């Protein structure tokens, strides 16, 4: 485990404003390019801004899936009617995953903690909570910060969830985060990291990496880092997750890709249709999978 996992953090060190906890160094965080990027993305993230403008009689108000769609992947395996004391979501955004788990799976909790670097998305999460009242009995704690360190006590969380987030985090920071997740997870706790790691053997990523490397002056190292299943297993084991949650699985997603759908913001003709048509045999599924999920095998 990393040294960071032994450092103590608390929400007492944060300032609560308008329902969101902000760190003491928020002004410094707010000046970083990473945060500026996600605040900008958050303004129109997957059309979630519609919730702020639709009329009361809009169908979106009656059916949350018209706003969020229906999350798939590992969420399909989540059991019905599960009840836990505490849920922590990494990269919670506007609340798409917990809204689905609350409404479709009847997941119940006493305390919900959501952390995201984008204040824009967190303010929208508060609006989505008001409109759909997911986790109706839970105490809500919304935290605006980078997710590398968590302001929560050791062994305090029953369930940790995350959806399509870890591929946006640099390798060293991700390893620190996994160690901190292990720190706050209760012994015997569970986790679901859906579609969280990009697959290094996926042809689409290999092509995209080659194109990105052609310009050494404009290169985001995050998107040059993908993982194999053994590497993900190694990261989870080194984080201490095996001690807290001995039974988990790393598996390829059911989304496959041989071509990037965009390169430098330009759409690649027919790439999306080709990727969606792929039905690889079992021997090629792990090679062609876009990414990997990791989750506790004993979700019940």
Our count of helices gives 12
The best one-word shape is globular
Main β sheet profile: 9 strands, mixed
The low-confidence runs, each spanning 5 or more residues with pLDDT under 50, are 1-7
**Biggest sheet strand line-up:** 1-2-5-4-3-6-7-11-8
Q: Kindly provide the radius of gyration, computed on alpha-carbon positions and rounded to a whole number of angstroms.
A: 19 Å
Mean pLDDT: 92
Count of beta strands: 11
Explain the layout of strands and helices.
Layout: E1 15-17, E2 20-22, H1 26-30, H2 33-42, H3 59-62, H4 65-68, E3 83-90, H5 96-104, E4 108-116, H6 119-132, E5 139-144, E6 157-163, H7 171-184, E7 185-198, H8 203-213, H9 229-239, H10 241-244, E8 248-252, E9 262-263, E10 266-267, H11 271-277, H12 282-288, E11 291-296
Parallel strand pairs: 2-5, 3-4, 3-6, 4-5, 6-7
Antiparallel strand pairs: 1-2, 7-11, 8-11, 9-10
């Amino acid at each position: 485990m990393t040294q960071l996992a032994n450092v103590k953090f608390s929400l007492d060190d944060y300032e609560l404003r308008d329902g969101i906890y902000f760190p003491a160094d928020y002004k410094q965080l707010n000046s970083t390019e990473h945060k500026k990027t996600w605040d900008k993305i958050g303004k129109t993230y997957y059309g979630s801004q519609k919730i702020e403008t639709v009329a009361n009689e809009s169908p979106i108000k009656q059916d949350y899936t018209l706003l969020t769609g229906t999350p798939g992947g590992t969420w399909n395996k989540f059991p019905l009617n599960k009840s836990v004391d505490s849920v922590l979501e990494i990269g919670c955004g506007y609340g798409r995953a917990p809204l689905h788990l609350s409404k479709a799976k009847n997941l119940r909790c006493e305390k919900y903690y959501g952390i995201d670097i984008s204040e824009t998305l967190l303010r929208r999460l508060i609006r989505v909570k008001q409109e759909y009242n997911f986790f109706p009995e839970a105490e809500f704690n919304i935290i605006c910060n980078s997710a590398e360190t968590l302001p929560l006590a050791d062994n305090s969380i029953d369930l940790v969830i995350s959806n399509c987030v870890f591929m946006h985090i640099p390798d060293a920071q991700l390893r620190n985060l996994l160690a901190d997740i292990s720190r706050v997870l209760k012994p015997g706790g569970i986790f679901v990291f859906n579609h969280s790691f990009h697959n290094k053997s996926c042809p689409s990523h290999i092509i995209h990496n080659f194109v990105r490397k052609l310009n050494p002056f404009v290169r985001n190292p995050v998107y040059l880092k993908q993982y194999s299943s053994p590497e993900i297993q190694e990261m989870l084991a080194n984080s201490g997750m095996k001690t807290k949650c001995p039974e988990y699985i790393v598996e390829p997603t059911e989304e496959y890709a041989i071509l990037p759908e965009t390169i430098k913001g330009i759409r690649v003709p027919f790439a999306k249709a080709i990727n969606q048509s792929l039905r690889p045999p079992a021997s090629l599924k792990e090679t062609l999978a876009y990414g990997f999920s990791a989750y506790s095998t004993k979700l019940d």
